[in-house]
Amino acid sequence: MAVRIYHNSRCSKSRATLALLEERGVVCDVVNYLDTPPGTAELTQLLDMLGMTPRELMRKNEAEYSELGLDDPSLDDTALIAAMASHPRLIERPIVVSNGKAAIGRPPETVLSIL
Q1: Would you give the DSSP letter of residue 102?
Q2: Per-residue model confidence as pLDDT tens digits over 71-115
Q3: What order of strands is seen across the sheet that includes strand 95-98?
Q4: According to the 3-state scheme, what is the secondary structure of 24-63?
Q5: Strand partners, 4
Q6: How confident is the model over 25-74, as pLDDT tens digits?
Q7: One of 3, 4, 11, 30 is an active-site residue; which one?
């Protein structure tokens, strides 16, 4: 089973989610998404798998959110996805993908439902 985790090693939830998967013997393709950010097409696919809107996937407490004026309700999905692709710190984490489904590891146990 191919499992991918969009991971930020500085995030405690991301570390806990990766550890949870490893404890269960799950081999993961670890994507350090701050170093290798997903593009707009990949983000669109992740949003579809998550069943979320771009705004729901955004970390609103990051400085970039306010600096870029992303709280503007007139911004469409395309603009929000482009902002996340350009500023990956805005993407909620961790995201785990398996079996054509995705889940956010908040709490970490949430990802077990897609394995």
Answers
A1: E
A2: 999 999 999 999 999 999 999 999 999 999 999 999 999 999 999
A3: 28-32, 3-7, 95-98, 101-104
A4: CCCCEEEEECCCCCCCHHHHHHHHHHHCCCHHHHECCCCH
A5: 29, 97
A6: 999 999 999 999 999 999 999 999 999 999 999 999 999 999 999 999 99
A7: 11
Q: Would you give the DSSP letter of residue 16? A: H
Helix (H) or strand (E) holding 7: strand 3-7
Q: Is 11 a catalytic residue?
A: yes
Q: Do residues 84 and 52 lie in contact, with contact meaning Cβ atoms separated by under 8 Å? A: no
C-alpha–C-alpha distance, residues 29 and 48, integer Å: 20
Task: In whole angstroms, give the CA distance from residue 95 to residue 20.
Answer: 13
